[in-house]
Specification:
- The protein is an all-alpha fold and 235 residues long.
- The protein has a single domain, classed as Serine Threonine Protein Phosphatase 5, Tetratricopeptide repeat (Alpha Horseshoe), CATH 1.25.40.10.
- Helix 3 runs parallel beside helix 5.
C-alpha cells in the first residue's frame, strides 16, 4: 500500500523525545511490559492492547464483568483454563490477559507447553509468538509467527504482529511490508495503521506517522489509545 505523504502540521517535539523511554516490547499487543514512555502501540484489537478494553475473547463470549479490568480478565480466563486445560480458546485468552498484566513469563510457559501438540493451530501459534516476543525472544517469535501466518495467510492480525516484532529488532522496511500486507486484507484498519505509524516514529518520520494516526483515529473502531497517540504526536 502506498504511504500517503499529505502535509500535516509539524509536531513541536522531536520524535526522539516523543519516543523517549518507549519500550519496544510494548508495541506488541498485550506485551508483558507497558510502554515506559507516553506513546503506545497495538498489533491486534484484543483489549490486552487497547487501553479502553481489558480483555476480549478470541473464542466464546466475553463475561461482562471482565471487560474493563485486566486483572479481572486474567482471573476469569485463568479460572476457565484451570477448569479445562484442554480448552485452547481459554488458554489463548488467558495468555493474552497474562501478558497484559506483566506476566509474560507465565504466559510463555503455558503456550510453550501447548504449542507442540497444536502445531497446526494458527491462533495458538500466533499467541505463542507474541509471548516469545514479550519475553525478548524475537528470532523465535518471528519463526513461530511465520508458521502461524503460513497456516492462516489471510489473517491480518498475524501479519501485523510480525511487523511489530520486526520493528522491535530494527527491521523497519520488512515490518512495513507486513503492515502493508495486513492493510490489503483489512483496509484502513486503525490498529494496523497505528502500528505502521509507530514504525515511522521509530525512524523519526514524525509527519508520516501523524498522517497515519489521523487516518486511524478517523475510524469509529479506533481504540482510545490511537487517539491518545495522535494527540501526543500532533502536539
Amino acid at each position: 500500500m502506498p504511504h500517503s505523504t499529505s502535509p500535516v502540521p509539524s509536531p513541536s517535539r522531536r520524535p526522539a523525545a516523543l519516543l523517549s523511554g518507549l519500550a519496544m516490547a510494548a508495541l506488541l499487543s498485550g506485551c508483558a511490559t507497558a510502554p515506559a514512555g507516553p506513546l503506545a502501540g497495538l498489533s491486534d484489537p484484543s483489549p490486552a492492547a487497547a487501553a479502553d478494553r481489558a480483555a476480549e475473547p478470541r473464542n466464546g463470549v466475553m463475561h461482562p464483568a471482565v471487560e474493563e479490568d485486566r486483572f479481572a480478565a486474567a482471573n476469569y480466563w485463568g479460572t476457565r483454563f484451570q477448569d479445562n486445560p484442554l480448552d485452547l480458546g481459554a488458554a489463548i485468552n488467558y495468555s493474552a490477559a497474562l501478558r497484559a498484566i506483566d506476566s509474560a513469563d507465565q504466559a510463555m510457559r503455558i503456550m510453550a507447553r501447548l504449542a507442540p501438540a497444536n502445531s497446526t493451530n494458527p491462533s495458538l501459534l500466533a499467541e505463542y509468538g507474541k509471548t516469545l516476543a514479550a519475553t525478548g525472544k524475537y528470532p523465535e517469535a518471528l519463526n513461530v509467527l511465520a508458521q502461524a501466518s503460513a497456516l492462516a495467510p489471510y489473517d491480518w492480525k498475524i501479519l501485523s504482529a510480525e511487523g511489530v516484532v520486526l520493528d522491535q529488532i530494527g527491521e523497519h522496511e520488512r515490518a512495513r511490508s507486513r503492515y502493508d500486507s495486513a492493510l490489503k486484507l483489512a483496509p484502513q484498519n486503525p490498529v494496523v495503521l497505528n502500528n505502521l505509524a509507530m514504525s515511522f516514529l521509530l525512524t523519526e518520520e514524525t509527519a508520516q506517522a501523524e498522517v497515519l494516526l489521523r487516518q486511524a483515529a478517523a475510524s469509529a473502531q479506533a481504540p482510545e489509545r490511537v487517539r491518545h497517540n495522535l494527540a501526543l504526536v500532533a502536539g
